[in-house]
Amino acid sequence: MSQGRLFSSTVMIILTAGAIIQSWFFILFVMALTIGGLYEFFTMVKKKGIPIYSYVGIFIGAMIPASIYTRFELTRNWELLFIVVAFLLILLLQFARQDNSNAIVGIATTLFGVLYVAWFFSFLVKIRLLLPEPQGAKLLAFIVLVTKSGDIGALLVGSRLGRHPLLPKVSPHKSIEGSLGSFAFSIMAAILSRSFLPVGLDFSIGHVVFIGAFLGGIGQLGDLSESLIKRDGQVKDSGKLLPGMGGVLDVIDSLLFCAPAFYLYMSAALNTI
């Protein structure tokens, strides 16, 4: 591991631990990562010459996790209203432009960025609010540990034993061996973090293994999806904020898919109590 990657990993671990322990720091951290991820996404899109509305997208994207955390809800699924507002604002801005070429692509891409980065990532806030503290923090710790352990497994096993490409057209450096390593590390992390799951539900070893494998697969799908976006944008990393690791999107890509999946799974499980 390079010194830059070691430094970035240490900083992210400390910040993540602080976010799990302190709820006020948690929402600030989530909003910061959301803004950073959206900025990187919109920067990649701009390089392709697509006329997007990055400032509107970043502002609306930051408001989504904040509204969920503060329980600012006039109706259920209130955060979706921000997406509708974003759409209307973008339309008004588009009306003011003299050049309407690629208008549909620009509007659709801006909204896609808000959904892909901000809305998906905001499910971490929903996970924390599923249960009162400290159970909510434990649930958050579980999803982060299992998901990021899968990333670590893919890196360690893939870099040492990777021989067979997984999807070379999407990500030439990912291997089948790395994918299997990701599954193994996610399952091990799920077993070791079993005590973080809610008391009162039947989380047997087999059940926990299933959750670990499920999140391991979903996390890899998130990673590959971001690789597809970077490949289309012809960039190696989404950004340069974290030396040795890339950008914010490179760090949170697996969580973008795991967070909604785990939230829906746990919501259904808790409703059975």
How would you sum up this structure, described in words?
By secondary structure, this protein is mostly helical. It has one domain (3-270). It has helices at 3-21, 23-46, 54-69, 79-96, 103-121, 123-129, 135-161, 176-192, 205-233, 248-270; strands at residues 165-167, 171-175. A two-stranded antiparallel sheet has the order 1-2. The chain starts with a helix and ends with a helix. The model has no long low-confidence stretch (mean pLDDT 88).
Shape: globular
The number of distinct helices, counting runs of at least 4 residues, comes to 10
The averaged pLDDT comes out at: 88
Give the quaternary arrangement of the chains.
single chain
- Residue fraction in strands: under 5%
Overall domain count: 1
The end-to-end span amounts to 45 Å
**What structural category characterises the helix and strand content?**
mainly alpha
What is the alpha-carbon Rg in Å? 19 Å
Strand order of the largest sheet: 1-2
Helix content: over 70%
Count of distinct strands: 2
Largest sheet: 2 strands, antiparallel
The helix/strand series, from N terminus to C terminus, equals: HHHHHHHEEHHH
Low-confidence stretches: none
